[in-house]
Design a protein that fits this description.
197 residues, MULE transposase domain-containing protein, 3 domains, two-stranded parallel ribbon, 9 helices, single chain
Length: 197
């Protein structure tokens, strides 16, 4: 499995930086990261953990409590929430202990500060995967053209109405303004905005 990860590491030149892998319980990937990239942070995707959790535990309140544990950002909150979780359902707590790898891999409080990410889920890659699903089984050039076309179609779609209103308001405000070059220095902007109303 790690043969496919090596080009990623070399291509992005990330040997000396703090990077994070977030995955589901993929044994091949887990062992590859542990064996070849042990200096990287490896986390369990909270979304996948919750989906696996809800197969055995249908109680929505327990899932909410599990998310509360994962979002805890200091040790006291984490211990308190885990204790509450255990008091509500010892069986679910045992499931989490057996299937959740280590809470160090899915709870914010244990994420190292050197890694500047507190992501609990791999939603970004999941969204990209579903976005490119139609193109995955095509030859490489066709696949890239399909992804390019989809990105261009998406870009041409209208922007969220709230954002359009904010942009329109700023555009209206900028109607009565003019930008002029004022010489500038390396420490100051070389442009000046003047109101011409």
């Amino acid at each position: 499995m790690y043969v496919g990860l090596r080009p990623l590491i070399e291509g992005f030149k990330i040997e000396d930086q703090a990077w994070v892998f977030i995955s589901d319980k993929q044994k091949g990937l887990e062992s590859a990261i542990r064996e070849k990239f042990s200096y990287y942070e490896h986390r369990t995707c909270m979304h996948h953990l919750c989906n696996n959790f809800k197969k055995d535990n249908k109680d929505g309140d327990l899932r909410d409590r599990l998310w509360a544990c994962a979002r805890a950002s200091n040790p006291i909150w984490f211990k308190t929430r885990m204790k509450q979780f255990q008091n509500v359902d010892k069986k679910a707590h045992l499931w989490l202990f057996n299937h959740g790898n280590s809470s160090r891999r899915w709870c914010k409080v244990f994420f190292p500060l050197a890694v500047k990410s507190d992501m609990l889920c791999n939603n970004l890659s999941e969204s990209f995967n579903s976005f490119t699903l139609e193109a995955k089984d095509k030859p490489i050039i066709t696949m890239l053209e399909t992804i390019k076309r989809k990105l261009m179609e998406r870009k041409s779609d209208s922007i969220c109405p709230r954002i359009v209103k904010i942009l329109d308001d700023h555009f209206t405000l900028s109607d009565g303004m003019e930008i002029e070059w004022n010489g500038g220095t390396p420490l100051r902007s070389g442009y000046m905005i003047t109101c011409i109303l």
